[in-house]
Amino acid sequence: MSVSTRLSDRLGIFARTFPRETPEAVAAEVQQAGFAMAHWNFAALGKPTLAEGVDDDTFARVRAGFDAVDVAIPSVSVTYNVVHPDKELRERQTAAAVDLIGRIPSLGAGVATLCSGTRDSENMWRSHPDNAKPDAWSDLRATLDVLLDAAVTAGIRLGVEPEPGNIVRNAPLAERLLDELGPDAPIGIIFDPANLLSPATIARQEEILSDAIDMLGARIIGAHAKDVVESGYAAAGAGMMDYHLVFRLLSRVAPVPLIAQDVAESDATRVHDELLRWNEEATM
Prior knowledge:
The chain is of the alpha/beta class. Helix content is about 40%, strand content about 15%. The strands form two sheets. An eight-stranded parallel sheet has the order 2-1-10-7-6-5-4-3. The protein has a two-stranded antiparallel ribbon with strand order 8-9.
């Protein structure tokens, strides 16, 4: 999928912001809020993220519903705990992920987004002391090998998002992963600046985010927009992040879809409009 240089053409939102019974209804809400793109997750329809049991007709309706309102789907969530300590569960979910990756082109998308996992058995976003052990990294690499083969077959790329509670928790570890896999691997980084910050480090956001862009910029294939608050995360503009800084830094990398996250339905239009305004102000 070619990506426009104009932010308005590549600004999206998580489809699950608008949970509805039909794909057509989800697509209509995304379009009504002003977004040109939507990151797809079958959870928007109350179905499993890995699409277990979802038939071909539903896939076709998702594609047709978004095409009908001229909203693109650049990426699809293939999110599960890729290093879950229960090996049998991990293998079952990996098999489901492989099946979903093979069906992503039918949605018009080119990226499958992943969680790099945690040894926490209950919450795939929660940190665990064992995440730093060599065997956790080895399990991540073994699972990725399977998913990378599926991505090659499907003709898409995998997107890994550094998350503070996961194995790939920061920019240096993301850089390590990319270096190990090599430049030809169909994998890139989903850059979410809020994930690289916390209330304790927000005063250093220019330094931290600039370093991350320097490390990862050439391999960034998507970006997310949310904000840092004392209790965790919130919609862009509701916290402590400097979005003028974010847009100045993103202007140093190739244009990619920017997907708004952690947005309430009632706040979606505000987030859309402010992201466009901040980008225009930052690049004037």
